Amino acid sequence: MNQPDMHITVGGVVFKNPVLTASGTFGYGKEFEPYVNLHHLGGVVVKGISLAPRRGNPPPRIVETAGGMLNAIGLENVGLDRFISEKIPYLKEIGTRVIVNILGDSLEEYQTLAQRLSEVEGISGLEVNISCPNVKKGGVAFGTDPAMAEAVTRAVCTHSTLPVIVKLSPNVTDISQIARAVEAGGAQAVSLINTLLGMAIDVKTRRPRLANVVGGLSGPAIKPIALRMVWQVAQAVKIPVIGIGGITTTEDALEFLLAGATAIEVGTANFVNPRASQDIVEGLARYLTDNKLSGISEVIGGLVVP
Amino acid sequence: MNQFEEQGEIVRQEQLAPEIFRLTLTAPDIASNARPGQFVMVRTNPGYDPLLRRPLSIHQTIGNEQLQLMFKVVGKGTRMLAAMSPGQRLNLNGPLGHGFDLAGKQAICLVGGGMGIAPLYFLAKEILRTSKPPKCVVLLGARTAAEFGPLPRDFMDIGVKETHFATDDGSLGHHGFVAELLKHHLDPANNWTVCTCGPHPMMKAVVKECRGHGWQCQVSLETMMACGISACLGCAVPRGDLSGPYLHVCKDGPVFKAEEVAWL
Asked: Which of A230, B17, B57, B214 could form a disulfide with B119 if both were Cys (CB 3.0 to 4.6 A apart)?
């Protein structure tokens, strides 16, 4: 039998397979070079970039929880200029799609990032983190208000020639409503979910375990919630959905694809098993072969609800 | 980057003290590339509880094939590690981070407290192997004599001529803190390089003592970390002057010059 066809298309861009790495869990790619054949992956979504470098939150920044972890890194990153000069030359050569995750605290910052990154060779798309606070609107997160989510999406789309994926926050009442808003704003795809807001307390000291008090929960613990949200959003929008949230094994990835995701991102699992993303690529190919399926498209959206 | 993921085969599990264990495993890629002060990330179980790997410093390498990890049982992950037995395989990746830098140093003092002693044994071996004539004083602290297990003898066996001890209960050596041993045993006429690893308050006291004498001091730090390879950015520590970007223990360390980091 021929090799199964693993390719998928998002925003007009062809990816060799549906397995990407989630922003903030894979550095700028190079960190995983000793463990993963990067060119085997469908794509790499790099650590979120802001216009100016960000220092991030004070430590402690992470804490382990049951089946997961909380993080409050605070979007530490090298900033756009250093990203372009120091990280892009390497990323251009890794032989897979590079998606740049961007974040800002104003519409103007998102616009500038979109514009400047569109001029950089070697980037296949933007993933827009809209979970950040809008400082001009009293710090309310862009991603929690449909109108603001639509506005930031439009700001990026009108200033960029690259396909735009908007990464949705699960910390909302109705994620489908936000998904429809960003679709209306021009997004070519949505990715979900970002981390769920949580906290942990040290009962001996009565202090929060994170210096930031609250942080984002990720890992296998959040998978059922992520899967439910992906399923709901896949029915609510026409653009492709990229599933994220606790994906650790091939079976996890298959669940998201069946629920309607066109692609998936592997996140916290990269910390637990640095080879996780590649293992899932190989596992999906094996699944297709074992089940005599010609391609991954036969899996996507294949959920059977009796 | 000389980093590897290996399925290390456990060849020996020793209980050194009630809650302290030493694991010997065959992991040739990591063992043959490891330097004193570097660490590995250990997956304590294949499931999700605990989820994250545990950072453990390398206690020593044996030839180019084996490495040893010494650890104290402090939670679920280390308890699982303590329950493993010869023949079983343990997934680990490394060697990670920067180790100690002793190029050209002649008078070296190693100060270890509790599990912080673990990487200093690897370092002592390396000093005795490479520097001639080596002047190497080892100062070790623990809560009780029993907690040292066989370590006093281990340091003697590799040829360390001068080792002094401190215990919280006075059951071996000085009754008090190991940091107090510096002024008792280090001749201020020498230009010492002090390498230390242990609980934060202990290292802080060692750093203060070194600063008073103008001695160089290298510290090995421990923090929470999820990945060990500079992807999660969880292991941030503030710089000595509290300004600029944070340092990351996994990549910039775990060994730092004392003045590089803040002693809060």
From this structure: B57
pLDDT class for B129, splitting at 50, 70, 90?
confident
Residue B214: per-residue pLDDT: 94
β-pair type (A62-65, B20-26): unpaired
Please, which residues bridge with residue B4 across strands? B94
Strands B39-43 and B54-62: antiparallel
CB contact at 8 A, B162 and B137: yes
How buried is A134 (Cβ within 10 angstroms: 0-12 exposed, 13-18 middle, 19+ buried)?
A: buried
Q: Comparing C-alpha atoms, which of A292, A202, A191, A199 is closest to residue A237?
A: A191
Q: Alpha-carbon distance B237 to B228, whole Å?
A: 14
**Structure-block tokens of residue A268:** 């916290």
pLDDT of B1 strictly over 70: no
CB contact under 8 A, B226 and A31: no
Picking from A31, A33, A64, the nearest residue to B51 by CB comes out as A64
Asked if the C-beta of A26 comes within 8 angstroms of chain B's C-beta atoms, the answer is yes
Half-sphere exposure at residue B176, Cβ-oriented, CA atoms within 13 angstroms: 7
pLDDT of residue A2: 66
Contacts of A248 in chain B (CB under 8 A): 48
The whole-number pLDDT of residue A140 equals 76
* B229 touching chain A per CB within 8 A: yes
Pairing mode, strands B39-43 and A164-167: unpaired
The CATH architecture assigned to B107-222 reads 3-Layer(aba) Sandwich (3.40)
Q: What is the pLDDT of residue B241?
A: 93
Taking residues B220-225, report their average pLDDT.
Answer: 96
The pLDDT, as a whole number, for residue B130 is 83
Please state, in angstroms and rounded to a whole number, the distance separating the CA atoms of residues B35 and B89: 23
H helices present in chain B, as ranges = 28-31, 76-82, 117-130, 151-157, 181-185, 200-213
Contact by Cβ (8 Å): A272, B228: no
Q: CB distance B5–A219 less than 8 Å?
A: no
Low-confidence ranges of chain A (pLDDT < 50): none
Residues of A serving a catalytic function are: 132
Q: How confident is the model at residue B225 (pLDDT cuts 50, 70, 90)?
A: very high
User: Which sequence spans correspond to the domains of chain B?
Assistant: 4-96, 107-222
Judged by CB atoms closer than 8 Å, whether chains meet at B224 and A248 is answered as no
The CATH code belonging to domain B4-96 is 2.40.30.10
Partner B contacted by A17 (CB < 8 A): no
Over residues B85-113, the pLDDT tens digits come to: 999 999 999 999 999 998 888 899 999 99
Judged by CB atoms closer than 8 Å, whether chains meet at B226 and A76 is answered as: no
Residue A62 has its nearest CB partner, among B230, B234, B244, at: B234
- pLDDT at res. A135: 72
pLDDT, position A34: 97
The pLDDT of residue B105: 83
ipTM surpassing 0.85: yes
Of B116, B91, B112, which Cα lies nearest the Cα of B228?
A: B91
| Residue B96 Cα, gap to closest chain A Cα (Å) | 11
Whether the full predicted model's pTM is greater than 0.90, yes or no, is yes
